[in-house]
Amino acid sequence: METITYLPQELIRIKRDQGELSREQIAAFISMVSDQRMSDSQTASMAMAIFLNGMKREETAALTLAMRDSGDVLNWPDAERPIIDKHSTGGVGDNVSLILAPLAASCGLDVPMISGRGLGHTGGTLDKLEAIPGYNATPDISKFRSVVKETGCAIIAATANLAPADKKIYAIRDITATVESVPLIVASILSKKLASGVSGLVLDVKCGNGSTTSDTDEAERLAQELVDVASSAGLPTSALVTDMNEPLASAIGNATEVINAIEFLTGQSRDVRLYRVIIQLTAHMLMAGGITSDYYKAEATAQRNLSNGKAAELFGKMVHELGGPKDIVENFEQHLPKASIKREIKATRSGCVNAYQTRDLGMAIVALGGGRSHPSDQLDYSVGLSEIRTIGTTIEAGETLALAHVNSEEQFEDLSKRFNKACEITDSPAFIRKPILKKITASE
Question: Which of 15, 68, 87, 310 is catalytic?
């Protein structure tokens, strides 16, 4: 059979003009990205064309599988426990993975979690973990396998040979305002999950002004697309649509979110909305893995292993196995980077915390150096926010809205102004949104 050679500019033109790319053309696009026959500017052009014109489900499925097949595809022939994973579409103050992976492992699952770095205003799980000194988010595959076998969970980056095309496109999306593209989100998430060899997947699709999908209907469509594309590729998947109209945890940043996660695992402090999301996601993972078919039993198992300390123990073990301190859970303050200034951000008026412009809070941390404006940017892991007041809190003028973790007076002034601008305080009571909005299963 004759091999057709495709030119990058011709593939871009087809999608620019609202055309449909064939499976072969999509495979050629990913092949060119992988072996650098397509320049960064051409890849960015294709990403923008896809962002503006979308893709049909068949195109998205082809893109997902081509990205999966751009590198190694793992299998777990010696696994003695169900291999189940979770993925979030990204939010602000979303440190769920840090807690959920060891919690699900403590309940009888193996969780080989391939995670990403920050995208736009959303924080990245890997960036948070790399705030821990020595943590190796890029181990070789044999180490990855051994940590999962010994600990039950490991959170790492996609290795150079695991969906490598996604890694290149992912970095370009971050700096070209194409993060929100549904086909690119679907292909990015699912290519890594399919390549990691999991047998079941639960998705946390964020919805609100702190997510990449602010509209509820849009978030539900994204969730349905993810579930249906995954299922058609042979990966049983379900999704929860969750609210992201305020930070999920009461902390934003890298080290600050790690601290929040450790305090959650040990029971020192647990944000209510975060707790509800984690317990429900864990319960659905246990059901996906066949641990139980009864949701309430799954939820009770998750609650028990959170309370008895097993999840905290596994988090510490995972961190140590991947190069971090052995006593990270017990002595996190000794190990995590600290900002030189920790100061209260005060409310400028009395009333009720009615709303947050959550995306602006995420971008405020990016502006401090806690996120990237360019793929090569070095992060300041110490900066961030903690003790953020939840929507519905009644507050007096001059009381604390949040704690700023910064490294200069100028940073504090900037963060304080940004926070107060993003926080709406009114005389009227706030509308409290449920953290879990809907469950999505595969279309019939």
Answer: 87
Examine the pLDDT at 310 and tell me if it is beyond 90.
yes
Q: Say whether both 94 and 221 belong to one domain.
A: yes
Please indicate, yes or no, whether residues 173 and 228 belong to a single structural domain of this protein. Answer: yes
**Nearest Cα to Cα of residue 110 among 236, 289, 248, 290:** 289
Active site includes 173? yes
Cα radius of gyration (the chain):
21
Catalytic site residue from 15, 117, 128, 192: 192
* 192 given a catalytic annotation: yes
Sign of the CA dihedral with 190 first, then 192, 195, and 199 last = negative
Q: Which DSSP string corresponds to 156-213?
A: EEPPTTSSHHHHHHHHHHHHTT-TT-HHHHHHHHHHHHHHTT-SEEEEEEEESTTSS-
- Is this model's pTM higher than 0.85 or not? yes
User: Within a domain: residue 70?
Assistant: no
Q: Is 69 designated active site? A: no
Question: Residue 415: which CATH number?
Answer: 3.90.1170.30
3-state SS, residue 346: strand
Mean pLDDT of 257-267: 98
Domain CATH number, residue 207: 3.40.1030.10
Number of structural domains the chain divides into: 3
Residues 324, 364 share a domain: no
